Amino acid sequence: MSRIFSGIQPSGELHLGNYLGAVKNWIQLQGQHPTIICIVDYHAIITVPYDPDVLRARRREMAVSLLAAGIDPEVATLYVQSAVREHTELQWILNTITPLGELERQTQFKDKASRQESVNAGLLNYPVLQAADILLYRADLVPVGEDQLQHLELSRVVARRWNAMYGRGEDYFPEPQPLLTPTRRIMGLDGQAKMSKSLGNTIALLESRDEIWAKLRPAVTDPARVRRTDPGHPEVCNIYTLHKAFSAPDAVKQVYEQCTSAGWGCVDCKKVLLDAMDGELVPIRRRAEELRAQPARVDEVLAAGASACRAIAQQTMADVRERMGLD
Ligand code: ADP
Hints:
2 domains
């Protein structure tokens, strides 16, 4: 049966882009396939200087958010990347067969590198660590948002190369395929770039109704709706995308009609969205409160997940070492 692997950085709070673009897919798939969800702390230390205590706290908080959102440790495996040392061992090995040109043309590398004064090798090699994360578990399916498609393509290139060089005629590493949700790309509240932890344009999954409203109210909508009486174009509006994710189909239809006929203003439309979001997010916020009160329980889940993953990872590395003459 296909194995699912996906990861999320503990570099900040779980936000609606992560939730709609990836996490909802994990929750839906976890009962159907063996599913491994990794809190990728080695990825989170690359881009900006950070405080070790803050990272520790954020790893636990990410686990709380994922469990509250619906990751079920009875059926899925949830763990922290650095607890399984084989990730970095496999990364080194894959580095030796990854073409530099492929890394240099990764859009996320070019984007992030252009925003930094000095660029670390880790930023360039990030997709190789990601390939190692996936291949370590010989995962076939990777539910991610659209921003990760290019990285996943690189994982396939690396898997193919390794198989050709060391696979002894066998496709030891499957070529991982992406799984996208209907909301594959959520824009930030500025409407300028994807919603991302590193851009500070997010709505966090666990924010209160008031906090969400404070961000939603001024959020960018269709730029053509300058006056209240101007008809809008829902297909270019991020608020409409969020309606499609949170509102019932009838309500989405109504939003479309009210926007294109200028029946509602953007603030009216946002108020309806806020109520729809509450329907889904209030129970998640409640579960997160309960989990925060039981840190030992969260640690237990992560320890059990790491132990299960270590067993798979050690087997993969034993095979890899043997085939490469490193045993
Ligand atoms: P971030 O970009 O906020 O740091 P991560 O790199 O940790 O997020 O990504 C975790 C998952 O969330 C990935 O599968 C990624 O594709 C998905 N994701 C991140 N941002 C968005 C977005 N704005 N829209 C849809 N999916 C997203």
